[in-house]
UniProtKB/TrEMBL annotation:
Gene from which this protein is expressed: rpe
Protein name: Ribulose-phosphate 3-epimerase
Family under the similarity heading: Belongs to the ribulose-phosphate 3-epimerase family.
Active site: D38, D178
Transmembrane segments: none
Recorded GO MF terms: D-ribulose-phosphate 3-epimerase activity; metal ion binding
HAMAP family on file: RPE
CDD domains: RPE (cd00429)
Species assigned in the record: Chlorobaculum limnaeum
């Protein structure tokens, strides 16, 4: 039986960069809601991806929400550049922000939605002081830095914990989950309380991306 409809955010990192426009159109036509953009600096995580110019290019190709995930040190230096490039929502890492309230307010002052992400080893409880100020929380279910990793089972408990916290502190909060989400485990992730699934390999590398999208959105 179909469950609740979930937001689907294909990860641009798994797209075909030789024909990025076609990959974006594939995602949009499959019913995706966001285009998830992973920005890595080779310092906070052991990989380097892309900067605002790719966000700008993606923005020209789609009406989907541009969901930008900054896996970088000192993200305050670049937030404005990413919003100007077209990011509708910007997520920073709790672990990278010594003045998290200030960073969240800075994102909002630029007209974007504000998100905070936490790594698998970071307790959900550390989000409590800022939860009421957030539009979304991105729970990492792998250690960030590379695509195609396996889902860490302990993330299910963290989703459940965060779902309970938001009911008390911020009912409108969106819970997104990123890392190792597949057609096989998405139902469990959704049942735990996730509203949005970030899907790279599970969408772009699927034999039938349209069918995969329906499964990931809880429509099948």
């Amino acid at each position: 039986m179909p469950g609740k409809t979930t937001l689907l955010a294909p990860s641009a990192l798994s797209a075909d960069f030789t024909n990025l426009k076609a990959s974006i159109e594939l995602a949009e036509n499959a019913g995706a809601d966001w285009m998830h953009c992973d920005v890595m600096d080779g310092v906070f995580v052991p990989n380097i991806t892309f900067g605002p110019f790719i966000i700008q290019a993606i923005k020209k190709c789609t009406s989907m929400v541009i969901d930008t995930h900054l896996m970088i040190t000192d993200p305050d230096r670049y937030i404005e550049d990413f919003v100007k490039a077209g990011s509708d929502q910007v997520t920073v890492h709790l672990e990278a922000c010594p003045h998290l309230h200030r960073t969240i307010q800075f994102i909002k002052s630029l007209g974007a939605k504000a998100g905070v992400s936490i790594n698998p080893a970071t307790p959900v409880s550390l989000l409590e002081p800022v939860l009421a100020d957030l539009d979304l929380v991105l729970l990492m279910s792998v250690n960030p830095g590379f695509g195609g990793q396996k889902f860490i089972p302990g993330a299910i408990k963290k989703i459940t914990q965060l779902d309970a916290m938001r009911k008390e502190l911020n009912p409108e909060l969106v819970i997104a989950v990123d890392g190792g989400v597949t057609e096989e485990n998405c139902a469990e992730v959704i049942a735990a309380g996730a509203d949005a699934l970030i899907a790279g390999t599970a969408f772009f590398k699927a034999a039938d991306p349209v069918k995969a999208a329906k499964k990931l959105k809880g429509l099948e």
